Amino acid sequence: MSLDYALLRTLHRMLRQLTDIGERMENGPRKVRVVTMNEANFAESLEVSKHALLELRKASNAKQMQLSEREAKIEDMKVKLNACDSNKEFQLLKDRVAADLQANSVLQDEILEQLEKIDVLTDEVETARKNHEKSQNESRRIRDEVDLELKALDAEKTRISQELAEKEKLISADLIVQYRRLVAGKGENALGLTDSETCGNCNQTLTAQTVSDLMMQKPVFCKGCGCWMYLADKHAAGS
User: Fold this and answer.
1) Helical ranges in the chain per DSSP H
2) I want to staple 114 with a disulfide (CB 3.0 to 4.6 A). Which of 60, 76, 194, 236 is the partner?
3) What pLDDT digit, counting tens, does each position of 7-36 carry?
4) What kind of architecture, by CATH, is found in domain 15-168?
5) Burial of 16 (0-12, 13-18, 19+ CB in 10 A)
6) Where are the domains of the chain?
7) Phi/psi of residue 104, each to 5°?
């Protein structure tokens, strides 16, 4: 009984379709992992910016409190100046007031610099928040897309698998065990198209006897990769 090369071509096509579906089903979760990682990175960036802003505000508030305390101290010393009993005491207090005023001037400059940095960090926090929200929306969109795609692919996989199982019933009993062993080990590469010169899977050059067996539509397995070979439909013996 001669082989039905049309059957082998159909089986090979279905095996390739299942391989493609499997790869696409694996690609979906990978896409989800990427956007999830991006979302986590943006969330971390937002938290870092918020923490930096919080710490700077704390430092600025502390300096402003320090400035207020020094200003109150200066006012107190100014009052004491009027009550000095000696020129020496008056001069000492006057020098301290002058020194504290100078220190306060430096402190005010530091506070102004911090307030400018706070403005910059506030903008950075807002940008980080927008980026995080954008990444969250992108994650939801990708998850929804992948979920729909996986459902469609799973349905397609089920359909093709059922059709493949029906087609496999047409393989003769003496070859079905070897066919299943090849599919289990090689997947779509269990079968291989040949132009009657080389194996379509591994490019192994075919011997004259192998070509003769192919022409007679006998079961032929590649001596290089072990696949079950078949001829194309355009070949004279492939119909």
Assistant:
1) 5-81, 87-168, 173-186, 208-215
2) 60
3) 999 999 999 999 999 999 999 999 999 999
4) Orthogonal Bundle (1.10)
5) middle
6) 15-168, 173-231
7) -65, -35
